[in-house]
Design goal:
The complex is a heterodimer of chains A (249) and B (370). By secondary structure, chain A is an alpha/beta fold. Helices cover 37% and strands 26% of the residues of chain A. Chain A has helices spanning 44-51, 73-79, 95-105, 110-123, 139-150, 169-184, 196-201, 219-226, 231-241, and strands at 4-15, 18-29, 33-38, 59-64, 67-68, 80-83, 157-161, 188-192, 204-209, 212-217. Chain A has a 6-stranded mixed beta sheet, sandwiched between helices. Chain A has a 4-stranded antiparallel beta sheet with strand order 2-1-4-5, with helices on one face. The chains are: A alpha/beta (249), B alpha/beta (370). The interface between A and B is medium-sized, with 31 and 26 residues.
Amino acid sequence: MTGVAIVAKGLTRRFGGFTAVDAVTFDVRAGEVFGFLGANGAGKTTAIRILTGLLAPSSGAASVAGFDVYREREAIKRSIGYMSQRFSLYNDLTVRENIRLYGTIYGLSASVIRARTDNLLERLRLGESGSKRVGTLPLGWKQKLAFSVALLHQPRIVFLDEPTGGVDPVTRRQFWELIYGAAGQGTTVFVTTHYMDEAEYCDRLGIMVAGRLDALGTPHELKERFGAGSMDEVFLRLARSGAPAGAAA
Amino acid sequence: MKRSSAFLGLLQKEARHILRDRRTLAVIVLMPIIQVVLFGYAIRTDVEDIRLAIVDPEPDAATHALRTRLGASGLFRIVAVERSTDGLNALFASGAAQQAVVFERGFGDRLESARAARIQIITDAAEPNTGTAMQNYADALIRDHEGELREGTGPPPIAADVRMRFNPTRESSNLFVPGLIAFVITIISALMTAISLAREKETGTMEVLLVSPLRPVEIIAGKVAPYLLVGLATVVLVIIEARLIFGVPLRGSAVLLLAEGVLFTVTSLSLGILISARTPSQRVAMTAVLAGTMLPTVMLSGFIFPLESLPTPLRLISAVIPARWFVEIARGIMLKGVGLDHLWQESLVLVGMTGVLLMASMRSFRVRLD
């Protein structure tokens, strides 16, 4: 797939009288690392739920991997990987059992699963831990494992919802190397984060404030537009004012 | 084909969860087995080895015959034979005697001259149920003896069937087993599914399953199916155990009983799903299940308290409790040996409830997605 991975036009989701996502328009190019920022309650999670096929939008249009979010949710689910901020593997299953479970859920054959498992364990240098229960691994390893499992079926787009919450800086750095590795192989990465240093790692950023996408651009562009020295400043300025400033795509 | 292997993967995973959590598994399987023994002895309303004091002011052949009969019945142990009632208070107060049979003076003479020979039965009724039972035993035994004397056939050797008639042990332990089956199914199906679904929600793995190509129905089915198996296996164990220890019969069709068991299991599973869909954590789910299904199952299904003895409002409430209908069905099959021709109404009620709950639980699961 070349060109765009995700397109959203006027995407809106209301819960009763509350508009969680308000006419959001953006696109994510294939193979890019797209950062999705916003304070808690700004609508990030709702937007992700729509894009992952969990939630239908109220109005507007969007497509993910070329599939429509209204009509082709099943196809979307097959084309994406997902990792949540909460740890998403089973602690009482071994590393290999977890991998095999996700493999079968995504319809991979036993031989493919076996080959990719060996490959994955080798890459993460977890070779000898394959038969350990996941619960016994350190958090950093678990998160890397969860990320690799989310990529097991080689999705075109992977959604990461605050993947590095509660992880030390060194591990976070390693985690981002994995992200770059995936992007380098052509996987589109859609990642939300609270860490502004991570925002700097992204190719492009979208910042949500109160349901609206208030800023969109590369980290460099955004810093220039707001006359700020760091993403931290950009974010704080946007979040505090709550005022739209240069929403464009 | 891929779909089915994905589903099998889910089943396998759930089976691993169950098998790896040895402690929970042990509780699930052992608890009902222990409960059969506990309830079997605890819920029995019969009393054995009653400490009996005899007051016989003028012993004669007739009083001796009755005394022998009481002593040989197997129900009573004669702890004292007194000439007067003076010592009775002390015997009762110390607990040495639980019951006293007091013959009137000239008991034999009056009996021979066909006048009313009176006997007084005094019972320690500190525990009303036990007291009533003891009273009934003594009364029945004496009436029986009396009846035989009247017929003039002379006291026959005390036959085993006489004992059976007065010993409702088997009857009372029979009654609790169907209730226990309902209880076991409720615990395993409703409680365990609610907890395991809530756990996935709590840890975040549910989100991952939901984002996957698996359909919600598959996710739920994959989660609950293993519990259905564990539940039914435990039910079979309970039935066998009750039969071995208490001789509880299975007079009707085992197939029908299992089918109704599956039906009731699905009812309870739906309740578990419904509850877990509406609760944020394992702990809340557990409390909700305990209050919402187990308490009614114990209190209002006729398991422990007979429905007839419930106050009218509670009896009306019991009509909406699935366990009550299942207990009735299971009692019918196990104890009366009746089939669907007698139980179709109860079964239909259960089918209806299951349908409604199943739909509600699927709906609540879907609503949670949106």
